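Q: For a teaching handout, I want to show students what a protein-ligand complex looks like in token form. Below are the inputs, and the small molecule is coproporphyrinogen I. Please produce the holo structure.
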Amino acid sequence: MSPIEEVIINKKSDINPIWIMRQAGRYLPEFREIRKQNPDFIKLCLNEKLSSEITLQPLKRFDLDAAIIFSDILMLPYGLNQTVEFKKNVGPLLGNFDLKEISNIEEVEFVEKLSSVYKLIKLVSNSQFTKNKTTIGFVGAPWTLLVYIINKKSPKLSLNENFFEDKYLIDKILKILDKFLKIHIKNQIDSGAQIIQIFDSWAGLLKEKDLPYYIYDPTLSLVNYTKSLNVPVICFPRGIKNYKNYCEIIKPDAICIDYEVDPAKISKEINIPVQGGMDPKLLLSDKENLKKETTKYLDIFKDHPYIFNLGHGVLPETDPNMMDYLVKTVKDY
Ligand code: 1CP
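A: Here is the structure, written as tokens, with coproporphyrinogen I included.
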């Protein structure tokens, strides 16, 4: 069993495995080199030779315990024939969503469109670089995908005024997402993903009263499904106000926390394995400060099953040497 599985499945608390969200990405010059030659991001994700190489890039540099596949949560709307493009300095832009057309998409057609993602997972999990490491597959949570599908751009820029207006449409989309997210999860697992992480990056946008319908019910459905396939699931409801409630309702195998929450409070309140938490901006400071803050998290979770990670993705302006120092600090603890 790999160290991350030991923590999640056997609740081991005396080891400190580490992986980093967005560990394959723009802070690495070798990634930027490939990216420069491949301006179409979706096409790059669907080139299994390159996307598997990108997935393995951070593992060749650092002693990380997991490979997170190089893909994107927006591959799902892409698989449902909604156009997705990534514009520099703007972010993702999605096309119109045709409910009639999407309601008719067959499973085989969807799986065929995303087949390169599954090939990439096979290549990664069979690679010598992932020996005794975990291959992590992932999906966007239904709520976060709903946000992109209806808003058609990042809610960072703003959530459309009439976002919640068409309840019929929202209900239909959530049902379609439930079906195809399960298909996507199943195919990732069949290809070699050993853990699934569910990214709910925009969980923080909702009011408490809306959580059951938009987050709890649809996420629980995916968590239960993944568990039924005997694969652990990590949930990351970024910005949610009450992690304790979330864990009690959703019961993920591990919970990934963001950098806004107090880790000491989490370690007291939550008794399932915890992942992440540290502010990615700390990698932009100096080594002394980085070591101090890293040690703080490791101290707090000393007797708790804990996987080291950040509280959101590593920032593009991060110096790879600082990443190296972070990994070594965790391994030497
Ligand atoms: O070069 C570039 O411009 C591409 C940047 C990039 C990368 C490296 C995007 C566009 N996606 C990815 C890969 C990616 N996305 C991974 C795989 C690799 C890894 O973690 O090492 C993962 C897990 C994601 C997941 C993802 N995509 C999330 C959830 C996590 C999070 O950051 O909150 C979200 C919200 C997306 C959408 C997306 N894709 C890309 C961007 C810039 C965004 C965010 C857009 C926004 O701000 O709304």
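A: Two things your students might notice: The CA atoms of residues 186 and 266 lie 31 Å apart. The two ends are 21 Å apart (CA to CA).
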